Amino acid sequence: MPKAKGKSRRQKYSYNLNRKRLYRSARRRAAPRIACSHIRHAWDPTKSVAQNLAEMGLAEDPNKAVPIPKKLLVSVAVESGGRGQGKKIVRKPYVVNEMEYEASLPEKKSNTLSRDLIDYVRYMIQNHGENYKEMARDEKNYYQDTPKQIKRKINVYKNFYPEEYKDFVASLKQEKMDVQ
To answer: How far is 116 from 158, CA to CA, in rounded Å?
Structure first.
């Protein structure tokens, strides 16, 4: 069988490609993206990882930064015979300061309940109060939840939005008072 036409031809050199730009973009794509913005902005691509982290005052190897204490005999021998190492100069202390500030900020609560579940729970409480068996027989109970499942959903709502739940129950009591 004959070969496909384009397969046997040798590759021609493409003169209209910028090889320097291709090489740089390939290196940039191959290098991992640094997630921390403070480190990313202070990073110098011409230096090694160890040099960059040392300039920022960060540890490259946590085992060397915070060593595990050895036995007393070994430490006594090192103290008497070892020389003190010179301190490393931190040229970019603002990186550590920014990271410490960001870490000290309170964490935002990102988990919430769906709007459908909130509406479902409010509807059930509004129409049935604390009667879970009645809630299970309600026509809006589309997923045919059992009384215990409905109670669990209401408790989840209470835990996520305690103030909103108290206000809602208080408004229901107020409406009952107005009706009577």
So the answer is: 15
User: Of 16 and 5, which is predicted with more confidence?
Assistant: 16
Alpha-helical (H) ranges within the chain are 19-30, 37-42, 49-56, 62-65, 72-81, 93-104, 115-128, 132-136, 147-160, 162-179
Question: Exposed/middle/buried for 135, CB within 10 Å: 0-12, 13-18, 19+?
Answer: buried
Higher pLDDT, 46 or 139: 139
If you ran DSSP here, which 8-state letter would residue 83 be given?
P
Residue-wise pLDDT for 15-42, tens only, equals: 999 999 999 889 888 878 888 999 999 9
Instruction: Give 115: exposed, middle or buried? Use CB within 10 Å, 0-12, 13-18, 19+.
Output: exposed
One-letter amino acid for residue 137 of the chain: R
Q: Is residue 74 pLDDT above 70, yes or no?
A: no
Q: Which among 95, 91, 93, 114 has a CA at the least distance from the CA of 103?
A: 95
